[in-house]
Amino acid sequence: PQAKKTKIRHLEHLRGQRVFVSGWVHRLHSHEDSMVIVLRDGTGYLQCALSGKVAQTYAALTLTLESSVQLHGVLQVVPESKTAPGGHELSVDFWKVLGAAPGGDDALADKLNEKCDQSVLADMRHLVLRGETASAVLKLRAALLASARTSLVSHNLLEVTPQCLLQTQVEGGATHFELDYYGQRAFLTRSSQFYLETCLPSLGDVFCVQESFRVEQAHTRRHLSEYTHLEAELAFITFDDLMSHIETIICETIDRLLANPATAALIKQLSPDFTAPSRPFLRMPYIDAIQWLNAHGIQREAADADGNAILDAAGNTEMVAHAVGDDIGEAAERRMTDILGVPVFLHSFPAAMKAFYMKRLPAQDGAAHVLTESCDLLVPGVGEIAGGSMRMTGQEELLAALETQESVDVSSCYWFTDQRKYGTCEHGGYGVGVERFLAWVANRHTVRECSLYPRWPGRVTP
Ligand code: 4AD
Ligand code: MG
Asked: Is the keyword Protein biosynthesis assigned to this protein (predicted)?
């Protein structure tokens, strides 16, 4: 009978039928007069048994891993005593090679293995992606993005696609990639926040999933030069609403992944101990966090006024206690979440260490620092995965704050400050680093594993 063309994922309903599947040879076991191919087509893995004449052709004897093939046969249920992906096996009666892959010294398995240098693996990322772990991470990434979108839409946020090419160099000048735009200076976006703010009066609450680009001198486990930024902006909310909303989106996104058998299996494969975080998340004001770090003996590297590390007599970086006004660095953040073992919102950071547009809390009598309605969400193993704040609502106040920004031409920001001129409102928003969120759920050592073709300082290929 005519074989039915199918993808591996859809085979379950075709047991006992004649089908044909195309894919790549993922694994290959040859015996005297038979052979087993584990086929991969991107939707799953299928065990295929070849015996008799079909296993003894020249093509069969010279078949190599990663060749593309088409296999025809009847799909058989395998007995419980044998294990096969999906619980079935294709009994092949006809097959052909579509594209052979090199064997011998050029075989993939010899080229790429755990002994390889990191830079070799990065150069060969297009082939590394064929591996079981790398492809599982990317499948989970797609599901995580879809799940987050479903949650955001269900909470009445509308998706928009802001531009990546821009000229207003707001947040932190030196951290933008600059380019020549028909003879004019332009930049790649670091955040779509300001565009989202301008959408509130026309579209209501909005979100976007957009690449953000950052000149980061940091070679760390959690910094990329280009990352996927999920950002949202909400009108007529309080700071408390904002934190609750972030928590809801993060938790619903995870719950949906765990409730779906296919995505739950990916999480189990990558991160066997992962469980949904319990709610509500801890909330800790920045000032309490400084005390907490000191009470737990977590110090920071001492630095001079230019930010250079201060060395002790033995040449080691000197460590000192945290003081109010200090940034909580990556190492301290990670130790904190490792001890707490659960997500935590750090909030109400001093204005001096946060972005100019953040809403300030009324100054407390005698307090040395003006605080802001800002929050960072930290999770175990990664640290900060999301940052957000309420925004200044007054045009005068915002203009004054913009004036303090180095290298910013305030008049060029009219489109953003006009949001306050034409009917201002209490509003706030946040940005989630998608690779960091995924690194947490998939238990990856670095965000580089969570990006298709990761970029970091010095790496912009393939
Ligand atoms: O904390 P950030 O810089 O906040 C903003 O850009 C706000 N304008 C967002 C907003 O309110 N709409 O960045 C937000 C998140 C961080 O918490 C982090 O998860 C991620 O973006 N992130 C990075 N991820 C990977 N590589 C980098 N270099 C990142 N920089 C920030
Ligand atoms: Mg941040």
From this structure: yes
CA distance 362 to 353: 17
- pLDDT at residue number 191: 96
pLDDT of residue 447: 97
Which tokens sit at 145? 């993005």
* Spans of the chain, pLDDT less than 70: 1, 109-110, 170-174
Contact predicate 140/441, CB 8 Å: yes
Q: Provide the 8-state DSSP code for 281.
A: P
Residue given tokens 């977590």 in the structure block: 298
Q: Could you write out the DSSP letters of every residue in 294-359?
A: HHTT--EE-B-TTSPBPB-TTSPBPEE---TT----HHHHHHHHHHH-S-EEEE--BGGGS-TTBP
Domain boundaries, the chain: 4-108, 132-281+342-450
ipTM confidence score: 0.99
Spatial separation of the C-alpha atoms in residues 220 and 228, rounded to whole Å: 17
The whole-number pLDDT of residue 308 equals 82
- Tell how far the Cα of 168 is from the centroid of ligand 2, in angstroms: 20
Judge if the beta carbon of residue 207 lies within 6 A of ligand 1.
Answer: no
Q: Does domain 4-108 have CATH number 3.30.70.260?
A: no
State whether the beta carbon of 226 lies less than 6 angstroms from ligand 1: no
| SS3 state of residue 138 | helix
In angstroms and rounded to an integer, the radius of gyration of the C-alpha atoms of the chain is 27
Burial of residue 398 (CB within 10 Å: 0-12, 13-18, 19+) is buried
Separation between Cα atoms, residue 47 and residue 36, nearest integer Å: 7
Given a contact cutoff of 8 angstroms between Cβ atoms, the answer to whether 11 and 46 are in contact is: yes
Look at residue 206 in the predicted model and tell me its pLDDT: 98
Using a 6 Å cutoff on CB, does residue 428 contact ligand 1?
Answer: no
Q: Phi, psi at residue 409, to the nearest 5°?
A: -90, 105
Contact present, 152 and 196 (Cβ < 8 Å): no
Phi/psi at 321 (5° precision) = -70, 155
374, 389 in Cβ contact below 8 A? Answer: yes
Tokens of 403: 């004036």
Q: What percent of the chain has pLDDT over 70?
A: 98
Cβ 214 under 6 angstroms from ligand 1? yes
The superfamily CATH assigns to domain 132-281+342-450 is: Bira Bifunctional Protein; Domain 2 (3.30.930.10)
Pocket test for ligand 1, best of 334, 345, 436 (most atoms within 8 A of CB): 436
Cβ burial of 307 (10 Å; 0-12, 13-18, 19+) is exposed
Kindly state if the Cβ of 49 falls inside 6 Å of ligand 1. Answer: no
Going by CA atoms, what residue is nearest to atom 1 of ligand 1?
387
Structure-token match 């249920």, residue found: 77
